[in-house]
Design brief:
The structure is a single chain. The protein is mainly α and 61 residues long. It has one domain. The protein is built from two helices and no strands. Helix content is 85%, strand content 0%.
């Protein structure tokens, strides 16, 4: 996957995580679940970045 596509995915994942955190603020009953979802989306974003850089490092220049 190309760099711009990876960064677009990361941007989307982090936007979803942000929405989960915002929702948690206004929905105290669902707070724990929403914060857990936000953490999962952040983990996906980090994994996407790590996967991209590990593949880039493995490719010969």
């Amino acid at each position: 996957m190309s760099g711009p596509a990876v960064m677009e995915n990361v941007r989307r994942y982090r936007a979803i995580a942000s929405l989960c955190r915002q929702s948690a603020t206004f929905r105290p009953i669902q707070r724990d679940s929403l914060l857990a979802q936000a953490a999962e989306w952040e983990e996906r974003a980090i994994a996407e970045i790590e996967r991209y850089f590990s593949c880039s490092a493995a490719r010969p220049a």
